[in-house]
Amino acid sequence: MSKFTFVAALLVAALVCLASSERVSGAEYLTGIQWAEPAVIDPGPPGGPPSDAVVLFDGKDMSKWNNAEQWIVKDGYVEAAPGAPTTKDVFGDCQLHVEWASATEVKGTSQGRSNSGVFLMGIYEVQVLDSYDNKTYFDGQCGAIYKQHPPLVNACRKPGEWQTYDIIWKGPRFDADGKLVSPAFITVLHNGVVVQNNFQLLGDTPFNRPPEYKPHPDKGPISLQYHGNPVRFRNIWIRELQEVASERVSEPTVVK
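^ that's the sequence the OP posted. Answer follows.
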């Protein structure tokens, strides 16, 4: 046994003894925070929806949306058509699940291949695009926060195959005077792969000007974009996220 290995073994043994002695002595750190019991939910089948989700599209109709009259519902999915479907309900911080598929027959290049978008609060866009073997500007490819941040990796499936977005959204906050208090943050999983990791948005996501924040309510609708390309959607659901209620009842302490 080398001298380094021997010293390392002694250090590990000392740490184990220290942890054991603390357990034997009964020492415990108490936060002083009284937490509400987390709600019990049914996570549902793979792909959801969980029992506490709001189902926005179940493959039958677009009754939860405005401006979706021309979108075509058939065979359990809805196909993009003129109009910009926007949810009738509004949401704040949330977990959003969207399944989508690009056209099976490849037509067009760059931004002209199954271009669409998912808009949080009707303002902030996660790009939908067939980026399988299709070059375009990186902050406009599939999984990008449009014109702000490219995806960490290109996780696109082949054209025509169903894909998933799981989006964790924390919206911006404004004070009573409309001043930005905290920016928006977003995490996106594309086909189960993290492509946006708690990215801090610079503002909205327009094509023709720099992003900026404009004051708006803490809740807004989910919107889908029609960009003139064939795109299908199915199994869309959302969960509003709220912190577990808590109350500080004492200062933090260590008791024995």
